[in-house]
Specification:
Layout: E1 4-10, E2 13-21, E3 27-35, H1 47-55, H2 63-73, E4 77-82, E5 86-94, H3 98-110, H4 116-133, H5 137-149, H6 163-167, H7 171-181, E6 187-193, H8 197-208, E7 229-234, E8 239-247, H9 257-269, H10 275-283, E9 290-296, E10 301-310, H11 314-331, H12 335-347, H13 356-368, H14 375-384, H15 388-397, E11 405-410
Parallel strand pairs: 2-6, 7-11
Antiparallel strand pairs: 1-2, 3-5, 3-6, 4-5, 8-10, 8-11, 9-10
Helix pairs in contact: 1-7, 3-8, 9-14, 10-11, 11-15
Length: 414
């Protein structure tokens, strides 16, 4: 059985439900996915991340330990997490415990743990994490690259916040974000497992009636800057942490996404055998690994990648990345590279579609990007029939990926 799309009417708002029944395991899972509610909607740096952490601290009535004990006693998983664009609450349990899990979720939505003690606890946790990241040079380089590519936008800001911004977040800030973003108007429900759809909808109705009828504003699209630039940051390290990126004019609903997937695979996302890996590791021995991808999201699309090398090899590595990308645009790919990419992407398809959670996630991504359910299967058919001329014509059109920005976090040369 494949996933299906339907809608449930709650107080005049039609909420989409993606559902698939699966009887292989006696498990039921549910995700409440709130659009336009992720870290890109921060009104204070780190606010959305802190909001998710607070919801993971149980109810005010039971407290963190008491609520966690209720979950553990029945082996129920209930958690909140956030991405750049979405805020997600997940519930999963054995079939026989799911009704009780739903009741606990309703309790959480009715009575989040808005206490000063909880706020102090999650602030301490977050500040500790930020302090540890001060010596995480991959994190620093990645963050500085976002600042280069997307200046003066939410993407340039740290999703965890800063020590000062986290200290300044109040319970009222968190409550306001939850009350104004976690509503029926921007909700997508993803549900599946060993349960009948009619029963799932019945349980779901009780949860959704706890949510306000609000809809958050759409996240404004962000475009990366289209100029070559390099930012070098000196640290105490024997390694150079090189992150790079550039514009990519392929939108989330572009009919060319299947071509972008194959091009990205050949250039740098396939690991061994990719252009970047072959040139930078195999031929020149500059790095243990090199990776790149075409990141295509609703709010932004861009080309990005990273590698790590010796401080003394940093400049050569940057030069090599530029050469690989320029050659890729100018000369395209070979028939052998296209064939290998097609064989891998088509041959590995069963592994990406074998579990219920994988299938539900795929169906969600299709719906989220305004495509019909099953669009991924159609894309695979298109990938199978791509011609060399078709792919190379696509690559040659996207000269914008040559406008590379580099963030290099490196030590002093000895």
């Amino acid at each position: 059985m494949s996933a299906t799309l339907s809608h449930i009417d709650i107080n005049g708002t039609k909420v989409p439900i993606i559902f698939e029944k699966g009887k292989n395991l006696p498990i039921v899972s549910m995700q409440l996915v709130f659009q336009n509610s992720g870290t890109l909607t921060d009104t204070k740096d780190g606010l959305v991340n802190m909001s998710a952490k607070l919801l993971n601290e149980g109810t005010k009535k039971d407290g963190s330990v008491g609520f966690a004990t209720k979950l553990e006693d029945r082996a129920i998983s209930l958690s909140a997490n956030t991405g750049a664009e979405t805020f997600v609450i997940e519930l999963a349990s054995l079939k026989e415990q799911f009704d009780y899990g739903v009741e606990l979720l309703k309790e959480l939505l009715e009575d989040p743990n808005y206490s000063k003690e909880t706020l102090s606890k999650i602030k301490t946790q977050t500040i500790g994490e930020l302090k540890r990241r001060e010596s995480d040079f991959d994190y620093i380089s990645s963050l500085k690259l976002k600042g280069l590519l997307f200046p003066n936008t939410p993407l340039a800001k740290p999703s965890l916040g800063t020590v000062d911004s986290v200290k300044g977040i109040s319970l009222d800030d968190i409550k306001k974000h939850i009350d104004t973003h976690l509503g029926l108007g921007n909700l997508i429900v993803v549900m599946g497992g060993d349960i009948e759809k009619s029963e799932a909808i019945k349980l779901l109705s009780g949860i959704l009636e706890e949510l306000p009828n609000v809809k958050s504003e759409a996240i404004k699209p962000m475009k990366p800057i289209d100029k070559e630039q390099t930012l070098e940051t000196k640290v105490d390290s024997k390694q150079a942490y090189i992150y790079f990126g550039s514009p990519l004019d392929v939108s989330y609903n572009s009919p060319d996404r299947y071509l972008a997937k194959v091009a990205s695979f050949i250039l740098g996302s396939s690991g061994f055998g990719s252009r970047l890996m072959e040139e930078i590791r195999v031929k020149k021995g500059l790095a243990y690994s090199a990776y790149s991808r075409f990141a295509i999201n609703k709010s932004h699309s861009y080309f990005s990648g990273y590698l790590q090398t010796k401080v003394s090899s940093g400049e050569e590595a940057v030069k090599s990345v530029k050469e690989v990308v320029k050659t890729f645009i100018d000369k395209g790919v070979t028939a052998e590279e296209l064939k290998s990419a097609q064989e891998f992407l088509l041959g590995s398809e069963p592994l990406r579609n074998e579990t219920l959670s994988q299938r539900l996630n795929r169906a969600f991504q299709e719906y989220y990007t305004n495509r019909p359910l099953g669009a991924t299967v159609e894309d695979l058919k298109k990938i199978k029939s791509i011609t060399l001329d078709e792919l190379n014509e696509f690559i040659k059109k996207h000269i914008e990926i040559d406008k590379l920005s580099f963030s290099v976090v490196t030590g002093d040369k000895k």
